[in-house]
Amino acid sequence: MTDAPPTPRRTALDARHRALGATMTDFAGWDMPLRYGSERDEHTAVRTRAGLFDLSHMGEIALTGPQAADALDHALVGRLSALAVGRARYTMICDDEGGILDDLIVYRLGDEDFLVVANAANAQVVLDALTERASGFEATVRDDRDAYALLAVQGPESAGILKSLTDADLDGLKYYAGLPGTVAGVPAMIARTGYTGEDGFELFLAPDDAERVWEALTEAGAPVGLVPCGLSCRDTLRLEAGMPLYGHELTTDTTPFDAGLGRVVKFDKPGGFVGREALEAASRRADTVTPRTLVGLVASGRRVPRAGYSVVTADGSSIGQVTSGAPAPTLGRPIAMAYVDPAYAAPGTEGVFVDIRGTREPYEVVALPFYKRER
């Protein structure tokens, strides 16, 4: 007799999602809304107006104490000790071989107070690694996954919607920064971050307050066309914006340099950090020969590439593999990200195909991202 699979966890907004008719899916052990209706309409709303997301499945981990910054410098590839209070940074946690365990956003809430946000599927791995790596530092690692609900309002109308509900200075809030405030009368940490390629905000608040804030955002956003959005359009939005997804573009078999993200690795920080020697070797390799390059592919036809499909030449020789693929509502054509042989990585390279169920479909190699919003 085999054990039954664990029951997926539910966010504080689960009843609201079901009342709205959401299609739910098991994602990283959570029951999450995939879509509420048309994922194309949700995608377009975020690009042109605003969308509201429940991201409460993400993994929040607190590091506090006099040596919290030093512990993070040791544990992660970035130099978090240089992060100013109120700012956020995109970074990664790697293993001893330089492979990526997860990509993270770290917020500095105070001199001795940091919030690490991990991907839901990797939250326990990151928590365990941080706990181990902080040993010997005067720092405390705390699992705060149950302490937060996380809502995101994204899109060109998001600032106007949120301004009507908060006392925070949103005009003065820079990209990748956060500040405490209230939203709809409840305490929140308001961050100008997101995963859509649009301007937007992520709101960290108590789970008991999630329903009230969701309702207030929905009401305030109705006149400008805000809609609830699921994970499906979040994926197409991030793909158009060229943002990597863990398990696809980023894995333990991938270093930050493989992914074209070597800039997040800071060798100039004092002391060692986990994976440093391997990453120094990866950096030297990247300076001389790149074994594979992450590129964008745009379809000539209508068939959609999927992760794992082979990228080939006209004679069928394999030159790479698709990591993510989907229809792109903004572009009106299927797109993909793929790791390919450097000889085929230059934008405009001809003779590149994706093998889709035995048929070689022509693709144009383009620079990432596919879409970039006007500033």
Automatic annotation (TrEMBL):
Substrate binds at residue 202. It is an enzyme of class 2 (transferase). The keyword Transferase applies. Gene3D superfamilies: Aminomethyltransferase beta-barrel domains (3.30.70.1400), Aminomethyltransferase fragment (4.10.1250.10), Probable tRNA modification gtpase trme, domain 1 (3.30.1360.120). One of its GO terms (biological process) is glycine decarboxylation via glycine cleavage system. Residues 292-372 form the Aminomethyltransferase C-terminal domain. Keywords: Aminotransferase, Transferase. InterPro entries: GcvT (IPR006223), GcvT/YgfZ/DmdA (IPR028896), GcvT/YgfZ_C (IPR029043), GcvT_bac (IPR022903), GcvT_C (IPR013977), GCVT_N (IPR006222), TrmE/GcvT-like (IPR027266). GO terms for molecular function: aminomethyltransferase activity; transaminase activity. One of its GO terms (cellular component) is cytosol. The keyword rRNA processing does not apply. Residues 15-269 form the GCVT N-terminal domain. It catalyses: N(6)-[(R)-S(8)-aminomethyldihydrolipoyl]-L-lysyl-[protein] + (6S)-5,6,7,8-tetrahydrofolate = N(6)-[(R)-dihydrolipoyl]-L-lysyl-[protein] + (6R)-5,10-methylene-5,6,7,8-tetrahydrofolate + NH4(+). Its EC number is 2.1.2.10. SUPFAM superfamilies: Aminomethyltransferase beta-barrel domain, Folate-binding domain. It comes from the Bacteria. Belongs to the GcvT family. The glycine cleavage system is composed of four proteins: P, T, L and H. The glycine cleavage system catalyzes the degradation of glycine. This is Aminomethyltransferase. The gene is gcvT.
